Amino acid sequence: MVFSKLQTKIANLTSVERQILSKSLGYHSYGKFEKAFAKFLIAKSLDEYLYSGYFDYQHTSESLVKKLAQIFALNIENELKDAINLNNEAKKYENDYIYIDTNFKRKNESIFMLALSQSSRYVEFDKKELCFKSLEERLKFISNLITTHYAKVRILPIFGKITGYRFVHLGQKYDFDTGGNLSGKEISESVTWISF
Description:
By secondary structure, this protein is of the alpha+beta class.
C-alpha cells in the first residue's frame, strides 16, 4: 500500500531531512510539523488517518497526504479515493450500536454508579466492518460478534446475567439471543444518564 510506503519513507528521514521537508510543506514552525507527522506515523491506515480529521491551519489530513505523495513521487490517488469512500460509507453507521440486555432491576444502587457503568452495556465494534455489505452479511457479522462476546462475558458487573442483545442499525432494531440468533423477544433498553 502506498500509504504505508509513505509512512516508512518519512519515518526513515534524518533530522535534517525532516527540517527540509517541513519547509517544503510550508510549515514555519517545526513543532507543528512534528505534531502533524506524529499523528501521520501512528495511523494504522489511510482511512483511519483521514477519519481523524487532522487540521493545523497549514494542511488538512487529505492535503498533507497528497502533498507528501507528490514530494515522494508516489501515486496515492486511488488509495485516497478508496479511503474517502470507506469513511463516507462508515459515517452512515456512526449511530449504530449493540446494547446488552440483562434482567437488571434497580434496588439500592447509586444513580452515579449506574451512570458510570452504563458503557459496559454496549459491545464496541468497528463500524467499518459493516461497510459495503448486504444486510444479511451485516447481521451475520453482528451475530458472530455477539457469540464471541457472550463466550467471554456472561455476567455484567452490577447489571447481572446477560439475557440478550439489541443491534440498532440505521434506525431498525434487531434483537438477538445469547447464541447470536435473531429472536422474537423484544428487548427494551434501560439507560442511565447524568447531566450537569
